[in-house]
Amino acid sequence: MKQNVPLAKIAHTRSGDKGDTCNIGVIAYDESDYPILLREVTTARVKQHFGALVKGEVERFELPNLGALNFLLHGALGGGGTVSLRTDAQGKTFGAALLSLEIDISR
Amino acid sequence: MIRIANGQGFWGDWLEAPVRLVEQGPIDYLALDYLAEVTMSILQKQRQADPALGYARDFPPLIARLADAIRERGVRVIANAGGVNPVACAREVVRLAPGLKVAVVLGDDVFARLDEFLAKGYELRDMDTGEPIATVRDRIQSANAYIGAFPLAEALATGAHVVIAGRSTDTALTLAPMVHRFGWQPDDFDKLAAGTIAGHIIECGAQSTGGNCQVDWQTIPDMANVGYPIVEAEADGSFVVTKHPAAGGRVSVHSVKEQLLYELGDPRHYITPDCVADFTSIHLAEAGPDRVRVSGVRGGPRPPTLKLSISYTDGWKAVGTLVYSWPQAIEKARAADLIVRQRLAGLGLQFDEIHTEFFGVNACLGPAAPPNPDPPEVQLRIGVRGGNKKAVDRFTRELIPLVLNGPPGATGFGEGRPPVREIMAYWPALVPREEIVTRVEVIES
User: Fold this and answer.
1) Which residues of B touch A93 (CB under 8 A)?
2) Is A10 helix (H, G, I), strand (E, B) or coil?
């Protein structure tokens, strides 16, 4: 049985910038939910969630010791830093935006 | 055990934070981080206008405020407040706080050496795009090497009350006291990695003690009096992250994890001038109220290169806004955006980019924003950038007329025409580390 909920139900996030790349840390509230993050929060789904906002690739790194994933969203900040014309040129709000991603928490 | 606190996450952070840190409980070292990637270029411009400037001007008056604690309680300050003119910064400190001994770390500024580097065959390629620096050589405004903890530890060894660096890494400010007090060597990889991770956790000030924390944010106590982070470091490389009990905020495994993930790239290779830290080796444990123990950190040897922070001018930009009210606020704002674009095209003005956001609808998240079909008001926000300053300046005159000659219901133009700003872009590059030779100078009144 699938059990779909927003990512916010089991994880919190923090996002920031390095040039034109935005990073999003996705952290399971309960480390036992880490395998669900691994299965559900894939690079393809993150890329799809942000749509045209992310021009480049999405990379994923695993931190099992923290029950966390780290995503790099390349070409996501309109040029980044001082070049960008965006309100959120540093990607500060991307993490919270990812929390609406629908995931299946069935085991 | 030594206590190292961070009282400033960037230039412009809370002025009271470092004062509270020395007043509300014991600390041995106070680290203050002033430099963001583009701060050096702003400081370079200030020095060009006045040779006595080019450093974080908030810093000397702060040291004057802290001078009694520094003298009487032995709190030592380590800051990258020097910018492109650390000696001038140090002189201002001793002028405002007579009797303090200040050590300055020099050698990071390589602006005058760029042609020497190019002549040696270093192409200084952009680490992100791979382009050689020759394409922007004539537009470079500043160039500094990120320096690590060892030069700062050398400065601490002079016995100075205050250590001032230019472009040191943020993490080095925290690691340096550990290197100094515990006698760590360049091949103590795991310990250096632990101190680097301690630095990463506290370098953004309150972002590890409850600030910008998503977890139960409504219940984090007394944020008006938020405590900035303190690391209690042991000689074996383990440490506890905490805050003064009298201060607000919250230190938890959650708050520390969020900060560990902040601005992180590849977690196995967190590269600094001092070591390569492995974030997948970190072990966290709650160790009492507002205390998180960090242990198990592993690291590898420092890289053979050092990173340069180079800034260059890259055209001009301006961003203007206008507010449209209900009803049909979005439709009116969209119509106004099309009119502006049509008028700019009609004037024959060229831009590298015209970017429109509808505040209240999609400003932060663009196409990923949740739907908001009938908001009571929308702020139209249009930005342009390009190499032609006159075109950008002309754009700034195209918004306010819409109040009378565009869709109905426009307001919020009280700030007038937006300013035109020069874009200072960032160029990260690598040089062999032996090119960067630092030295320490002591300045006393």
Assistant:
1) 364-365
2) coil
The residues spanned by each domain of chain A are 4-79+89-104
On chain B, the residues whose CB falls within 8 A of the CB of A51 are: 366-368
CATH code of A4-79+89-104, in short, is 3.30.70
Contacts of B366 in chain A (CB under 8 A): 51-53
Q: Do B265 and A49 touch (CB under 8 A)?
A: no
pTM here is 0.96
The mean pLDDT of A53-75, rounded to a whole number, is 97
* Domains, chain B: 2-108+146-303 (no CATH), 313-427 (3.30.70)
Average pLDDT, chain B: 96
Task: Give the distance from residue A31's alpha carbon to the nearest chain B alpha carbon, in angstroms.
Answer: 11
ipTM: 0.98
Cβ distance B258 to A81 less than 8 Å, yes or no, reads no
Which parts of chain B have pLDDT scores under 70? none
Please tell me the predicted confidence (pLDDT) of residue B64: 98
Contact A87 B357 (CB under 8 A): yes
